[in-house]
Design brief:
This protein is mainly β. Helix content is 2%, strand content 40%.
């Protein structure tokens, strides 16, 4: 049987269907052997059939590079959340991406020129854009100065999509939009004297949460957390997050870290704080400074900032477990695996109640959270372009590099690791020569972003290509 190839260009986005295409079925049969097709029947939950339950799952669907808004790196894969009419596709954004998010309808990206672009999740067709490029300004691209200070043209708020809605900024104004059409549902300027919105917002059924930050040049400049009614955009409450910002190095120090079960976790001067997302009431505080915050159903995993040991070597601190809401330490710390003396502590990229996924010394480690033992060790592929941080998707840890998608079972009984070449992946490339004038973000080598929903992975590469494939 011949295979047809259809290519369509729409607004700079190329969508291609070729011999790797599948019908989005359960992964069984001949299609399971094609690149980009599902290789394991049953690895994606079928989901409910009750209309109310289906509607609820779609309304809750939303991911970014770190998974869902709880920061745990765990994304349940349910066929109900697969984009309607999806088939594997390849596309290209109009510019290099800074950060991306997806729901069942759209993939929305902040680009390194300070504008936004959204493409349809089912086929990669461009849907809408926001912002204009200042071609006469001094800064037309995001970059780091030689001293390490970050500059961003246009808008810099990382997008967040969920359930058919997307939060972005437009000329500094916070906006909630329809993720598929780009229609503005409401907008909100930062409260007077509070500066500009920074970093990434979070949203659920009831609230949109965002951090505003004043310029460090202002006396007593501070960062503050703001909550808005998701339906109307009405400002609900605010909380100051820390000590005055007095230097460029303290820009973007305070962030909203996670949202789960009606509780928002944010940085503050002492460490980490938990607030009721609806009322702003302070629920708990921790003196632990957390490099990463991963919230599960029963605990908050806090990976501490590295400690400096003798001779400047990086010591290996414990990974603390905190209680949700109150943020008191609970139980025993999660042990790190044995590593070479003086090595940097591993990063915890995903944590469920049963497993933790760590990255250390070029390896992906799967740890049993009950015993603390490492049950899987897989070496990451070598290359100049760094791979993405692994996520827990169903019963596997999944990550991508510039050539392929990788799936690692979470226990010893799950078979071997799988490497699946990704159609349209750009491949490895050499790093650009270093410049004394700083680093332009769009020219640096950055890991892909894996946006996984419904057994589908939209893989956004650092130069703007997108490949949408079924999970291996």
């Amino acid at each position: 049987m011949g295979v047809g190839v259809a290519a369509a260009v729409c607004g700079g986005v190329l969508a291609v269907w070729g011999p790797w295409s599948t019908d989005g079925g359960d992964g069984s049969g001949a299609d399971a052997k094609r690149p980009g097709a599902s290789a394991r029947p049953g690895s994606v939950e079928p989901g409910p059939t009750d209309p109310a339950a289906v509607k609820k799952l779609i309304a809750e669907a939303g991911v970014d590079a770190g998974g869902t808004q709880d920061g745990s790196g765990v994304v349940r894969q349910v066929a109900t959340q697969r984009p309607q009419g999806w088939r594997p596709w390849r596309g290209k954004l109009g510019h290099a991406p800074m950060s991306c998010t997806a729901d069942t309808r759209a993939v929305v990206c902040l680009l390194t020129n300070g504008t936004y672009e959204a493409v349809r999740a089912s086929d990669g067709k461009r849907l809408w854009t926001s912002g204009t490029v200042d071609r006469e300004g001094d800064v037309g691209e995001a970059y780091y100065s030689p001293s390490g200070v970050f500059f961003m043209p246009g808008d810099g708020l990382h997008p967040q999509a969920r359930g058919g809605k997307a939060v972005i900024a437009h000329e500094g104004v916070l906006q909630l939009r329809d993720s598929a059409t780009g229609r503005v549902l409401w907008d909100a300027e930062p409260p007077p004297g509070k500066g500009t919105f920074t970093l990434g917002p979070l949203l659920d059924d009831d609230v949109v949460l965002a951090v505003a930050e004043e310029s460090y040049l202002k006396d007593d400049a501070r960062a503050s957390l703001h909550a808005y009614d998701a339906a109307t955009g009405r400002h609900l409450w605010e909380q100051d997050l820390g000590a005055p910002i007095t230097a460029k190095a303290e820009i973007n120090r305070y962030a909203v870290r996670a949202l789960r079960d009606g509780v928002v976790y944010a940085d503050e001067e002492r460490g980490l704080a938990a607030y009721d997302a609806r009322t702003g009431a302070l629920l708990g505080q921790s003196d632990d400074d957390c490099a990463d915050v991963l919230v599960t159903a029963k605990d908050v995993v806090c990976t501490p900032l590295p400690e400096v040991g003798d001779g400047g070597a990086q010591a290996l601190p414990s990974v603390w477990r905190l209680t949700p809401r109150t943020l008191r330490r609970t139980g025993s710390p999660i042990p790190y695996p044995d590593l070479k003396s003086g090595s940097e502590p591993p990063g915890v990229s995903a944590a469920s109640q049963a497993s933790a996924v760590l990255v250390a010394q070029g390896r992906v480690l799967v740890s049993d959270r009950t015993s603390g033992g490492v049950v899987r060790t897989e070496r990451r592929p070598k290359g100049n372009v760094p791979p993405s941080a692994p996520l827990i998707l169903g019963d596997r840890a999944v990550y991508a590099d510039s050539r392929a998608l990788y799936a690692i079972p979470l226990d010893r009984r799950g078979g071997g690791a799988v490497r699946r070449p990704v159609p349209g992946a750009p491949g490895d490339r050499h790093a650009p020569p270093q410049s004394a004038n700083g680093s332009v973000i769009s020219e640096t080598l950055r890991p892909p972003t894996v946006l996984a929903l419904g057994g589908v992975a939209h893989i956004v590469y650092d130069e703007g290509r997108i490949s949408s494939v079924a999970l291996p």
